Amino acid sequence: MFKDDEESESYFLKRRKEGIASVVEDPVQPEVVWEQTEKDVEAEKSLKTVTSPGFSFSAAGLLFPYHLGVAKLLIEKGYIKETTPLAGSSAGAIVCAVVASGASMQEALDATKILAQDCRLKGTAFRLGAVLREVLERFLPDDAHIRCNGRVRVAVTQILWRPRGLLIDQFDSKEDLINAVFTSSFIPGYLAPRPATFFRNRLCIDGGLTLFMPPTSAAQTVRICAFPAGRLGLQGIGISPDCNPENRATPRQLLNWALEPAEDDILDKLFEQGYADAAVWAQENPVEDLIRDDDSSSIGSSLVQ
C-alpha cells in the first residue's frame, strides 16, 4: 500500500488530523477491510505474543445463549485464555466483549434472560437496541474497553458508498465499545426505528451482512456458528449444531428464536447445546495439540480466515 515507512507515516498523520481512520485491505481477502489509526498500529506492535488459534463468533441474533455455552466450555478447557484473540459480528461481538470482560458465562446468561423477559413483555422490534444498551451498561465493567483493546475485533458494515465490512479493535471508552457492539448488531428497522446508525461518522448496519464470522488476529481462526452450518452451505466451520445433530431444533425454530426472545427454558437449552457442541469439537481437537504462541507483531501478516 505504501512505498516506504516515511510515506506510510505521512499518510497516517494526515488521516489523524482529518479525524478519519484509515481503511486497510486484508491481503488474504481483499474485499475485507478494517479500520486502523496510527495509534492502533502502534498498539498492535506492542502485542508481541498472542495465542493461536483465535475464535470467531457468528452473527446469531437472540441465539446468543448458544455462543455463551460454547465460550464456557472453551474457557473451562483452556482454549480461550487472556491472550486468545476474539472476533464477532452482532451477537458474536457481544459474546466477545463479555468474554474479554472476565464475566462468567452463567452471569451473562442471566443478563440475557432479563433482556428476553423485557422484550417478551414490551415487544422487541424498534426497541431491542435500547434494552441491549441498558443491559450492557449495567453488565460490562468500567474497564471493558481496555480489556478488549487489541484483542477483540468487532465487525460492522459501512453502507456508503458500497457495503463493506470493517473490523474495530481499539475502543476509547466503555461507551465507545458499547456503540461498536450496538452497531455490529444493528439490523435495519429492528433494533431502532431507522434504517441505519452512525458510528464514528460512518453510516453503518449489522456486521453480519458482510462479515458473518470475522477473522481474528491469530494465525488461525476457529469459526463458531449458532446455525447448522451444513444447511447454510458454510464451509470450514469449527463449532456449530452440526457437531452434534441429534434432537436439534429446526431451522425455522432457530430463526424464530433469533428474532424473538424464547422462553427461559429454551435459552437454557441453547446454552447447554452450545456447551455440548463445543465439547464434541474439543474431543477432536485436544487443547495440547491446538494451542501455541505466535509472534504476531503485525495485524495484517497474521490474518487467516
From TrEMBL:
A motif (GXSXG) lies at residues 88-92. The active site is at 90 (nucleophile), 206 (proton acceptor). One of its GO terms (biological process) is triglyceride catabolic process. Keywords: Hydrolase, Lipid degradation, Lipid metabolism. It comes from the Eukaryota. Residues 55-220 form the PNPLA domain. One of its GO terms (molecular function) is triacylglycerol lipase activity. A motif (DGA/G) lies at residues 206-208. The keyword Lipid metabolism applies. Pfam families: Patatin. Its EC number is 3.1.1.-. Belongs to the patatin family. PANTHER family: CALCIUM-INDEPENDENT PHOSPHOLIPASE A2 IPLA2 -RELATED (PTHR12406), PATATIN-LIKE PHOSPHOLIPASE DOMAIN-CONTAINING PROTEIN 4 (PTHR12406:SF7). Lipolytic acyl hydrolase (LAH). The nitrogen atoms of the two glycine residues in the GGXR motif define the oxyanion hole, and stabilize the oxyanion that forms during the nucleophilic attack by the catalytic serine during substrate cleavage. This is Patatin. It comes from Solanum commersonii.
